[in-house]
Design goal:
about 325 residues; alpha/beta; Rossmann fold; Alpha-Beta Plaits; 2 domains; six-stranded mixed β-sheet; about 25% strand; elongated; binds adenosine-5'-diphosphate; binds magnesium ion; EC 7.6.2.2
């Protein structure tokens, strides 16, 4: 019987009990990940959580000490060459030379990847333009700002469009404007069909970019899901109420405190108030508690113009999951 090829996998990354040990540190301590192809997947965790170690194993730069990992169905150890042909890791495979200009770097890397001189020039100009670096194309990279440097790193890593791009903390240390530019680039890259695995310490970054998020802490996945699932698993939210009459706000606050047992916050707007909902307080979920609060307000004769139940922020999710403040 001829050996069957591995089944076509809709997963860009699949790991089972992946482990990496450095001395006595279990940097990655049994991680299971399933990254759907064609999406941005966020790996969120504080410094030292094991993000870079996990990414390096997936990119075949580090050998796992236990468990297994597949990239597009190919084992990262047994089939490392096949994996390498489909992935790129910003700042690792594509190292930018500080003494060369933006153009020189990209043309050189393009030539190393086997492009003709003309093709390398074309691709380089196209990427510099797309990343807002045309004006700096002739300048040495050592004179680039932090944001420009991060952008040329990403440009270098997608000279050949990879099927899976690892972005390891692509915006750490950047100012808000540069972060936004990098976010736009990530969105453009994924729109071209590349799967992006992004690690970050920033909750808002995962929230902005990723479809699914794994929260990791001390080498372990402590939560995984869509943004909505993650927030829902914490089971709390915030009720935002707008009243018709500012004069009814005191009464509304008393009703909300009574039904939700929650802290009520009077917003600067005289007709608005916010109450937190703890989904674990009773057997009722946050939505049911909010619905009950709304009917109690009506019973008390309070006229409500607008009523919304919002989900908690990712900061609150991290706090609830780890019992400690998030890294931001
Ligand atoms: N080459 C190494 N040698 C020894 N310890 C390491 C090495 N690389 C990482 N570590 C340790 O492994 C843990 C996870 O590190 P890392 O994967 O870099 O985390 P993150 O990228 O989430 O900040 C940390 O405790 C770190 O000190
Ligand atoms: Mg790291």
């Amino acid at each position: 019987m001829t050996p069957q090829p591995p089944p076509a996998s809709p997963l860009a990354v699949e790991t089972h009990a992946l482990v990496k040990v450095f001395g006595t540190t279990r940097a990655v301590d049994g991680i299971d990940l399933r990254v759907p192809a064609g999406t941005v997947y966020g790996v969120l965790g504080p410094n030292g959580a094991g993000k870079t170690t996990a990414v390096k194993m997936l990119a075949t730069l580090l050998r796992p000490d236990g468990g297994e990992a597949r990239v597009f169905g190919r084992d990262v150890v047994r089939d490392a060459d096949a994996v390498r042909g489909r992935v790129s890791l910003t700042g690792q495979y594509a190292s930018v030379d500080e003494d060369l200009t933006g153009t020189e770097n990209l043309v050189l890397l393009g030539r190393l990847l086997g492009h003709s001189r003309a093709a390398a020039r074309d691709r380089s100009a196209q990427l510099l333009e797309a990343f807002g670096l045309s004006g700096a194309a002739g300048r040495q990279v050592k004179h680039y700002s932090g944001g420009m440097r991060r952008r040329i790193d990403i440009a270098a890593s997608i000279l050949n469009t990879p099927d899976l791009l690892f972005l390891d903390e692509p915006t750490t240390g950047l100012d808000p404007r540069s972060r936004n530019q990098v976010w736009d680039i990530v969105r453009a890259v994924v729109a071209q069909g590349t799967t992006v695995l992004l690690t970050t310490q920033y909750l808002d970054e995962a929230d902005q970019l990723a479809s699914r998020i794994a929260v990791i802490d001390r080498g372990r996945v402590i939560a995984e899901g869509t943004k909505g699932e993650l927030k829902a698993s914490v089971g709390s939210g915030a009720v935002h109420v707008r009243l018709r009459e500012p004069g009814q706000r005191e009464r509304a606050a008393r009703v909300l405190t009574g039904t939700l047992g929650a802290t009520v916050q009077l917003d600067p707007d005289p007709v608005a108030l916010t109450a937190t909902v703890d989904g674990h307080r009773t057997e009722l979920g946050a939505a049911e508690q909010a619905a009950r609060a709304l009917s109690e307000l009506a019973r008390a004769g309070v006229t409500v113009d607008n009523f919304a139940l919002g989900q908690p922020s990712l900061d609150e999710v991290f706090l609830a999951l780890t019992g400690k403040e998030g890294p931001v």
